[in-house]
Write a structure and sequence with these properties.
homodimer; alpha/beta; 8-stranded mixed β-sheet; two-stranded antiparallel ribbon; 37% helix
Chain lengths: 231, 231
């Protein structure tokens, strides 16, 4: 499948590499594909152009460019931009280039401008997922993957045993496609819990403060939660 | 131990009954101990006076009355009021009656005034736990138990296997006392994760929207989460 990724940072590169590994063609995107990136928590972090060249060197169909080209390219589109920049990046991609397509939104609206811990720039009675759905009514927004770090997103077996991923969105068929193909077949998630329509993105994004505190307590970002049902 | 409970509803009664069972003297409290209560999700729900009489009939040291009397009575105090009314109830209890004491805050600031799902009346850059700590600086506020329903709070084995409870607060000794005596010895919690100072109440309270969505997806309120650490 041809997949467009909004973003070219670590999350975009990790997700993009996994999608390439599964035989897809992938185009990542940013304002400047030669921009130097800070070294982040997941180690090596090349520019979009370097990433593309590396992947191409492995014989994979990798591309890098602007937001608009990635949206045009993708039959399926991922939003892997930082939450604070998502609406702007998607606007640059063009409403018409996202219309009728599934957009997997895994961003979190974390605002680091006042230091750590970050707060949410949108929450409680709204969410980034809903804002995106409102701004792109012809696009089928599916919120998922935002409750784990990028390494776990694409490699859930890094966390042993049973643990759960959440999904929400207004279109049942789109959620089913994302669950079966992307999450289960390509990424090997075993348990995906459907929390309802896109307003459930509030709950999924508001989990982030707990995730951040848990990262501090556990001293690792490689963890997830399992929902355990009572008798 | 003599324990005062702010509140006389289902949470207060379930917590109070468990504390009595463990040999403590317990005083629950409300504006009107004869107030009729709606039947809630946990079944039978007597008035405070009826609850006291029932418990006394089992030979237990149960009392019911106003907020001030309960705060005076308690060497340890629980806040089991609905989050929207917590600060008012605690103000009625009197700052001097809570000074120097541990206050276990298990309330959530859920606002149901606009229907389901409720939103949080305080969140993101503040929390109910912090508001209480600010309003009662001589009291040692410990936030815990708010991430599960009242039945699970006092009976964690209703959820099988391993699952986690969270705790936060500014005073390490108070957290240790609450963890060892209240949570582990009396309530039989096995895993309690310390998330830091009282500002972590933000994270614990902001988990509630996810809890509510999970309740909808699982069709039960009897569940909890387990944190699973990666390799």
């Amino acid at each position: 499948m041809d997949i467009g990724i909004m973003g070219a940072g670590q999350v975009a590169q990790i997700i993009g590499s996994k999608l390439l590994e599964k035989g897809n063609r992938v185009r990542i995107s940013s304002r400047n594909i030669d921009a130097e990136k800070d070294k982040g928590p997941f180690g090596k972090f090349p520019s979009a152009r370097q990433w593309r060249d590396e992947q191409a060197g492995k014989g994979r169909q990798a591309f890098a460019g602007g937001f608009r080209e990635a949206a045009e390219f993708g039959e399926l589109v991922f939003n892997c931009t930082a939450g604070q920049g998502s609406l702007e990046a998607l606007a640059a991609a063009g409403e018409e280039n996202l219309a009728g397509k599934i957009l997997i939104d895994l961003a979190n609206p974390l605002d680091f401008s006042k230091g750590m811990p970050p707060f949410l720039s949108i929450c409680n009675t709204e969410s980034l997922g809903e804002r995106i759905q409102q701004a792109f009514p012809r696009t089928k927004v599916v919120k998922t993957l935002n409750t784990v770090n990028a390494l776990i997103m694409a490699n859930p077996s890094l966390v042993p045993g049973d643990h759960d991923l959440f999904i929400s969105g207004n279109d049942a068929e789109s959620k089913a496609m994302v669950t079966e193909m992307v999450l289960k077949k390509w990424f090997h998630w075993k348990s995906v819990v459907d929390l309802g329509d896109i307003s459930a993105a509030r709950a999924m994004e508001m989990y982030l403060p707990l995730w951040l505190r848990l990262m501090g307590a556990l001293k690792t970002a490689n963890f997830n939660i399992r929902v355990v049902k009572g008798n």
